[in-house]
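Appendix B. Chain record.
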Amino acid sequence: MAATAAQNTGAEFEEEGVVAAYVHRTPYPPALFDRLLALPPGRDRLLDLGCGPGKLTLTLAPHFAEVLAVDPSAAMLRLAQTLDAGANPHIAWTEALAEDLPLPAGLDLITAGASIHWMDAPRLFPHLAAAIASDGVMAILGGDGPADAPWIKAWDQTIVDWVGKLGGQWQDPAHTARIIGHQPWFDLAATEVFTAPVTQAVDDLIEAEHSRATWSRAKMGARAEGFDADLRAVVAPYARDGKVTFEISCTLWWGRPRATPLVA
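C-alpha cells predicted for this chain:
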C-alpha cells in the first residue's frame, strides 16, 4: 500500500536515500509481464513513463526493438543504467517530464508503473494519443507492496497512523484527485489483477517504505526510527530467520489514451 500525504511533491525521488531504498520494493508478479507482452500486436516501440530504476523497462526491453524510458529524476536513471549494465543498449534513458518530451510515432506499448499520478494528465494524454500506434495499448499499473498476509491489517493501520503523525490526512481529497485525475483521459478496455507469493527480509521490507515520497528518510528525520520500530513490531512475530512471506498484488488497467477527456 502506498503511503499518502498532501505534502508530497515528487521531488523526493531525487534523493539518494529514496533511490537506494527503491531496489527493495517488491517485484511485479511474473504473470504480469507475460500479459503486458501479449497485449500489443507489435513490439517495435515501447514507452515507459516514470520508469524509475527500470522496474518495468529492464524486463520488457529485450522484447522490443526501441525503448524510451522517461523519468524526471536523474538519480533514478543513474540507478537504472547501473542495473542494466549495458545489457540493453537500445534503451534511451531520458531525463525529462513526459509531458514535455517529443515522442516517436507508432508506440506499440505505453506503460506507467505506480507513476501516472505524478503526471499532468491534461498535458500528457493528448501527447500520448498522438503518438500511440493505431493498434497500440497503454497499460497503467497499481500496487507494488505487500497485499495479503496475517499481519497486513496491522501493517496498513500503522501506515495510516503515521500519515497522521506527520501531519497529513490519509487519502485526503487532493491526493484522491491526483490518483484518479487521469481517468477521464483513458479509454479503459479491461482491468486485471495479478498476484504472487514473495519472501523478503524484514529489514528490506521496511526499507522499501522509505522509497516512497511520504516516508523519505530526509523528510522524516529522527522520526524514521520510530516508524521503522512500529513496522518491525507488526511483522516480527511472523518472521522466520529474519524473513516474512506474503502475497503481492498488482492491478493492470489497459486501454488507450484519449486526446480529449470523457465528459460525465
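Further analysis of this model is presented in Appendix C.
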